[in-house]
């Protein structure tokens, strides 16, 4: 579909502003998790549940996105998602207890879930010949947002003298992203146009869809264990809260250049299997380093885990490439992300429980090393040159 250049630039800006917000609600929590637990009297097990709230919301609410997009339009659904995110981020820090904090986190993350699923279809619809490059750009924006929240939440908390205000200020970023999508909400795209030439594709019957879902689930498990527990692993090894936050931010910061380059490369090659396998090997090395001693070479472990985290832009690019049109991409995106996040739900909870039971990080990190194997296998099959 051909669109005027100014319209494409406006859409790209809107897309990037939305992408900046896709991890703020998650990465802002880890660096001040100790303060949150103390302020809300939250146990380690409940904290592990907190790290799983994102995957629960992304799995359950993300599956509703295709139906909502067909009825309302992708732009309107994304605008609704950003509204929910703004409200959740602004209110949740002032929850009086852990249960309400979890529920309000669910509101914010439910908004993110809607945006998560629909952005690949926006890329396919507006930039069909630049899927890899534009996906790379918006994952760069996503990583910049995640990195900023991870690195700045502790200084903001120290500056304000209150972790609640340090978390609530991130609602401003979501508020800034909302106006362009209110304008784009008037547009009707291919994601919600009737499909008269062929019946809707049933992605659940497609092996490539299952490969993408498993790969998405494995990389999500790894990503949310890193997001939820990496700062605590470093702090438990004797590193300061500030340094732990910076090391954690490094894992996201690496996604800026690597995510851009990786997505552009993935969009140009016929098969992405080799890329997926290589990323998994880096993941094994990073988790093994933490297992041996987190404080021995903390920067190296952070770099290795930052590299494996670029599996996220890779899988988003593969989702957009595996679908022949935007309508198929939104279904494939919902299936891969919905099922993938369902697969990922137990991971962060299990890591928290293992830590409580063993009073250490050896067993949890051994599990993470083992989970890299199915990620590598699923990535190999998801990366093959196939289309739905």
From TrEMBL:
InterPro entries membership: MFS, MFS_Cyanate_Porter, MFS_dom, MFS_trans_sf
Statement: the UniProt record of this protein carries the keyword RNA-binding: no
Stretches assigned to the Major facilitator superfamily (MFS) profile domain: 11-387
Keywords per UniProt: Membrane, Transmembrane, Transmembrane helix
Name of a matching Pfam family: MFS_1
Major place of residence: membrane
Subcellular locations according to the entry: Cell membrane
Entry membrane topology: Multi-pass membrane protein
TM spans (from-to): 41-65, 77-95, 101-119, 131-153, 165-184, 208-230, 242-262, 274-292, 298-320, 332-351, 363-383
GO MF annotations in UniProt: transmembrane transporter activity
GO cellular component, one term: plasma membrane
PANTHER family on file: 2-NITROIMIDAZOLE TRANSPORTER, PTHR23523
This protein's name: MFS transporter, CP family, cyanate transporter
Organism field: Actinoplanes regularis
């Amino acid at each position: 579909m051909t669109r005027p250049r100014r319209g494409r630039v406006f859409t790209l800006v809107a897309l990037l502003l939305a992408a900046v917000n896709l991890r703020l609600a998650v990465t802002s929590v880890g660096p001040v998790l100790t303060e949150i637990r103390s302020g809300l009297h939250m146990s380690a097990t409940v904290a592990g549940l907190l790290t799983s709230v994102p995957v629960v919301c992304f799995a359950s609410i993300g599956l509703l996105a295709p139906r909502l997009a067909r009825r309302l339009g992708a732009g309107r659904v994304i605008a609704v998602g950003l509204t929910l995110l703004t409200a959740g981020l602004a209110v949740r820090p002032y929850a009086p207890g852990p249960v309400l904090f979890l529920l309000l986190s669910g509101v914010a993350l439910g908004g993110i879930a809607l945006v998560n699923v629909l952005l690949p279809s926006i890329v396919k619809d507006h930039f069909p010949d630049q899927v890899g490059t534009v996906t790379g750009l918006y994952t760069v924006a996503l990583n910049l947002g995640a990195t900023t929240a991870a690195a700045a939440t502790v200084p903001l908390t120290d500056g304000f003298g209150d972790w609640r205000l340090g978390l609530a200020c991130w609602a401003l970023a979501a508020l800034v992203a909302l106006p362009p999508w209110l304008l784009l909400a008037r547009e009707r795209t291919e994601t919600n146009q009737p499909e008269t030439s062929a019946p809707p594709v049933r992605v659940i019957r497609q092996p490539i869809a299952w490969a993408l879902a498993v790969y998405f689930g494995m990389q999500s498990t790894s990503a949310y264990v890193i997001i939820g527990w990496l700062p605590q692993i470093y702090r438990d090894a004797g590193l300061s809260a500030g340094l732990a936050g910076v090391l954690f931010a490094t894992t996201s910061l690496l996604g800026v250049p690597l995510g851009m380059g990786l997505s552009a490369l993935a969009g140009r090659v016929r098969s992405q299997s080799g890329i997926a396998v290589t990323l998994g090997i880096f993941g094994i090395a990073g988790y093994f380093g933490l297992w041996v001693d987190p404080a021995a070479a903390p920067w190296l472990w952070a770099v290795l885990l930052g590299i494996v985290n670029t599996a996220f832009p890779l899988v988003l690019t593969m989702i957009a490439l595996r679908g022949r049109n935007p309508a198929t991409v939104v279904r494939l995106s919902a299936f891969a992300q919905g099922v993938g996040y369902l697969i990922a739900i137990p991971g962060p909870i299990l890591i928290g429980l293992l830590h409580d039971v063993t009073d250490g990080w050896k067993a949890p990190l051994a599990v993470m090393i083992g989970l890299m194997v199915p990620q590598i296998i699923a990535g190999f099959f998801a990366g093959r040159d196939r289309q739905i």
